[in-house]
């Protein structure tokens, strides 16, 4: 049974990944291109300043893949494989939750597990460390930023698991509704403490030379006399990028829940579908 | 082994015995996390192929868009 559920999870995840890719290709890629154009222009302005100051010119990064490959193929492969991997993880959690989280039927359980995946793997970590387009992020902090992001994801997932466990424990005493509310409230407070404890990216030691900022979003570039020679990162592009990033993940996780739910219901409740004519009941059990 | 309850009132579907399916559940989770790692993290915070940047550059846009730190 678990093999069949996992297969359906991977399938649902791949469907979600394809949808996210189509969405990204239409909406996100123009914003990513604007961000890359900003970065190129800023690098050129910085080079002029450095040259005037008599500093050595850094070598350009070689382009291994063209922008066309990155924007048409690379992003598709990344999103579809990410979707399939998330679908597989989703199915594993679904198998564990099945029958252990109250009297939830297959389809509502699928939507709840998908919502937990969206929250735990993306949305809650995003609130602390939001997605950034190219041009935002200093190369010398990538290690710390990577670990901090994974730590945030890990803490969120661990707290979600604890929340479900706590909700189950409180149920006998407070009833389903109040137990869920209490556990959810504990989750929000605990996540808030984690967010407050982790440092803002702008405060990392390597970023002190950039001034006291919360994030690594590029500030205006100034010449030695303090005149602005290149603007800061465009706020509208940053907002669009983040909005599309959230929308794509929401699309992906919703698709996982909506595709997986009916497939699982047919597998787990063959009697329900046998009530309708002209449908062969599938044998249960693996 | 698994039994499916057909009646709607007792709709707790079935409980998969974890001990029997642990191989598939853990194996799937490990493979999924490996894919997650290569799309989101490799050749960034960590790198198992040294300083090569092919994976990073290929999934570059997706990595940014999925919320992972990049560059």
Automatic annotation (TrEMBL), chain A:
Superkingdom in the source lineage: Bacteria
Keywords, alphabetical: Membrane, Transmembrane, Transmembrane helix
Matches recorded under InterPro entries: CbtA_put
Transmembrane regions listed in the UniProt entry: 73-97, 109-127, 147-167, 179-198, 246-268
Pfam families on file: CbtA
Name of the protein described by the UniProt record: Cobalt transporter
High-level lineage: Bacteria, Bacillati, Actinomycetota, Actinomycetes, Micromonosporales
From TrEMBL, chain B:
Organism field: Rugosimonospora africana
Pfam families registered for this protein in UniProt: CbtB
InterPro entries, alphabetized: CbtB_put
Stated name of the protein: CbtB-domain containing protein
Keyword terms, alphabetized: Membrane, Transmembrane, Transmembrane helix
Transmembrane segments: 21-39
């Amino acid at each position: 049974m678990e093999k069949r559920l996992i297969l359906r999870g991977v399938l649902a995840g791949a469907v979600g990944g394809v949808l996210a890719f189509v969405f990204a290709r239409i909406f996100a890629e123009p914003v990513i291109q604007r961000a890359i154009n900003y970065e190129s222009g800023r690098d050129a302005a910085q080079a002029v300043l450095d040259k005037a100051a008599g500093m050595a010119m850094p070598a350009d990064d070689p382009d291994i893949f063209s922008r066309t490959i990155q924007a048409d193929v690379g992003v598709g492969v990344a999103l579809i494989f990410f979707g399939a991997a998330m679908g597989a993880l989703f199915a594993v959690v679904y198998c564990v939750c099945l029958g252990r989280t109250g009297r939830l039927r297959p389809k509502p359980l699928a939507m709840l597990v998908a919502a937990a995946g969206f929250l735990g793997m993306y949305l809650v970590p995003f609130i602390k460390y939001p997605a950034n387009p190219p041009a935002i992020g200093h190369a010398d902090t990538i290690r710390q930023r990577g670990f901090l992001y994974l730590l945030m994801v890990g803490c969120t997932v661990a707290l979600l698991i604890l929340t479900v466990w706590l909700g189950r424990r409180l149920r006998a005493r407070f009833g389903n509704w109040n137990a869920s509310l209490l556990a959810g409230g504990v989750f929000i407070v605990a996540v808030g403490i984690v967010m407050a404890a982790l440092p803002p990216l702008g405060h990392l030691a390597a970023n002190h030379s950039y001034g006291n900022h919360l994030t690594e979003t590029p500030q205006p570039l100034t010449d030695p006399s303090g005149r602005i020679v290149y603007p800061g990162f465009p706020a509208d592009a940053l907002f669009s990028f983040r909005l599309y990033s959230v929308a794509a993940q929401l699309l992906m996780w919703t698709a996982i829940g909506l595709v997986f739910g009916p497939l699982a219901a047919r597998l787990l409740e063959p009697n329900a579908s046998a009530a309708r004519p002209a449908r062969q009941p599938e044998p249960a059990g693996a | 082994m698994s039994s499916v309850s057909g009646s709607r009132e007792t709709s707790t579907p079935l409980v998969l015995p974890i001990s029997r399916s642990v191989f598939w559940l853990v194996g799937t989770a490990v493979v999924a996390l490996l894919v997650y790692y290569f799309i989101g993290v490799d050749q960034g915070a960590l790198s198992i192929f040294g300083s090569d940047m092919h994976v990073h550059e290929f999934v570059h846009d997706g990595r940014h868009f999925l919320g992972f730190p990049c560059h």
